[in-house]
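Hi V.,

You were right to ask for the full record rather than a summary. Here it is.
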Amino acid sequence: MKTTSKIVIVFFLVLAATVVSAKTARQHLEAFYNGIETMQAGFVQTRFDEKGKPLQTSEGIFALQRPGKFRFEYTKPYRQLYVADGDRIWNYDPDLEQVIVKATDTALGDTPALLLSGRRPLERDFLIKALKRKDSDLEWLELIPKKGERSFKSVRLGFSAKGLRLMEVVDALGQTTRLQFRNVKVNTKIPPELFRFTAPRGVDVIDSQ
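Predicted structure:
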């Protein structure tokens, strides 16, 4: 498979950390809502089955501008692009020569992508608690959806003194997607054209708005 729940993964990238020491994991999480307007970073994504066996590793880059704008691009092993301008989201698959366009609310629904790229308090939709892990020296938080119909079971966030280092998403099938962040840049100016998309000539455009 080229992708697995990538729209859900998009949202989790917006939880990047600020470079401030001596914060608890909860304070890092709150800092996102209080101070982060834009973000850029690279990522490595690894998906595991329910027994912890690695299934797939991907790499890419992303950019975010709150509220509601992001660019999420997979570069290895396959190319895949998601661009959101606040109203619409484009999913471009170069191999299939196809673009799918959806309204943001339709594409993301009540998933965390919509919640975390906006301003809505997390406590409305998630139970947030500290998580102790013997296999890690990071500080961890777990976010559990209050509504049972979500497409994922939980999100685990691992913070060091410099901010968010790891993110793990457990889906409805028990599979885990782990994201490792690198070269994080916060509150830098992002060119507005990065959040626009024009389909290449000859590409099929499927409008599902």
